[in-house]
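Sorry to interrupt, but I need a hand with the structure work. Could you write out one complete protein record for me, on any chain you like? Just paste the record in under my message, thanks.

. . .
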Amino acid sequence: MRTTSDHCGFSDKAERKIHNTRSAFHPFHALLVFVAFALLLVRCSNPSSYNKFIDPELLHIAQLTDERNSDSLFSYLTHPQPLLRVEAAYAFASIRDPRAVDKLHKSIQDPVAAVRAAAAYALGQTLHPSSIEPLAIQLRFEGDAGCVIAMAEALGKIAGGLHVSGSTPDLIESAAHAVYNLEKTDSVTVHAKAKAAFWLHNSGWQDMRFMNSLAGMFASQPVVNRRIIAYAMGRFRGNWHADTLKAERFLKYLTTESDTLCIAAAMPVAGKTSSRYASSLIERFLTSTSASTELLIACCRASSNNAGVGASSLLPLIKHPSANVSETACFALEQKELTDDDRQYLHASESKVDIRMQAALTRLFHQKGESLPIDPWIEKIDTLTNTYDRVACIRMLGCTGTIATTCFNRALTESNVVIANAYVEAFIESHKQADFPTDIDFPAALNQLIQKKDIGITALCAAESRNIEVDEEHKRILNNTLSEALTALTLPKELETANEIIKTLNEWGITPMKEKKADINHPIDWKLVKSIPRKQLAKIVTSKGEIVIELHVEEAPGSVASFVELVRSGFYNDKFFHRVVPNFVIQGGCPRGDGMGGTDYTLRSEFRLHDYRTGSVGLASSGPDTESCQWFINHIPTPHLEGRYTIFAHVTDGMSVVDQIEIGDRIVRVELI
């Protein structure tokens, strides 16, 4: 007799129902499944010059998905054709309608594995706590590898979401218990456990059982499992690392690991382990002549958290040919004690690095107590012709309060929105410095900046208003200015700024209101969609070289159609990469050049694809259904983005170019191949 804990707290009756349903299949059912898959193959055998939307039923489901028409989609979850059931389940992964949850619970018992996997993914997206029990029970009897992984991941996502929302720990424990206690030890089960652990750890959940289990299994797993284990362990925020012997046993595996991404993903473990072995391991990779840029960046970040790593290992990286490496090394040095020799080395390096690194070093010296003169930088900034070089130098000015008045005045008068925003960022940061001028009325200055009526500056000032002490009189004044700014915004184009204002007004409790959402405002051009080949390529010509991407029109029709339309109109020509986060993403396509620009319309989120491997191309957004024209390409796998940002393409050629892109590099043009 099983105990209650073996069932994760679920009833015998509920478990028997699943078991009986799954074991009652008849040979005739197998024939039906065979016929269903034959139909699926026929539907999917179109030449590469076509896509699946030539099928009117598939087109109809896609239209209903874009319209968020759940009521009309429900019937497709029980359609006789398995392919349509799959499509309907994935539709609810994007819609995330809680009314579909009960119906999706039945879909995870479907005789066709593809339907069960799609339904599990949709339940993981919906994050409804009622899904824990049916997913956990179905998982115990699931025989398909893809479904096991999908169901375990869904449980991890739901439990992680509950943890973030402060839900009762009992539900979280039920989900974690269901995955952790899977009896098999094959590679599929290990992968499933690691997927669930990743989402739990990503949420901040600090139970250490998965850490102990995954650490012990790491070395014996295939590379695909070692990667997800490394990501799951790297995301853990608890005190597992305090047991240094246990942590070191895991870290020793990294000395013989052949996969760079595994090592890079596991570096946060070394960063959090306070032992000489851990710090020596980081230093070993930092000083290796064969270490990749991805690994060097990961080690720089790990060294920021590990006090045992000395500055001497980071110093040479200041002159590394990759700006992403040198920038990250400079940030890491802010956490280190610098000897006189270290300081001398850095000062001697100033003349050997570019202007952006010179600015970064100036910030570092100020952070370390060297009050270098900042005034000469104003004149130097004015001589620069590259906008993004100027931005990097302007942002550095925030390291001291002595230049705050200049930053404020320039923010008010600057006509280039990218540069004006940089001066505002510097002014806001300077307010945090001890030498900020006492004669500046900071809330009044924010109010004056908002009156400039730039959406980027307004968003920055609205957000900062929530972070400072504001008396009632200033609240009243700011409330009036922000309310006026809100009514002047153009929606949905300026939705992000609108919601920053609303968050501030709501926190003050003066004029409480709901944050705005993007209603459907850009129906998909289905005629255009049907004309796009399923493997359409696009070439992004940049100032560093060419990047070729393959568009996934069948999985993200609205996103691809918008991208194609913008490409054909020349929209992306002469735009810039305004954002680069090392070991994360490069981002471009903003018409303003600072990340606050967009089209006059927004797109619906499309979450059919959920494989954020290296070279994934996604649409930037400020929340569900707010996608527009900005896109990003990730340097390395970014599993935490899965199900949060639409993937509409993958890089097929030119990842070396992606890795070289720096802020301010130009998108010369984008063209369809």
Summary: The longest helix spans residues 145-164.
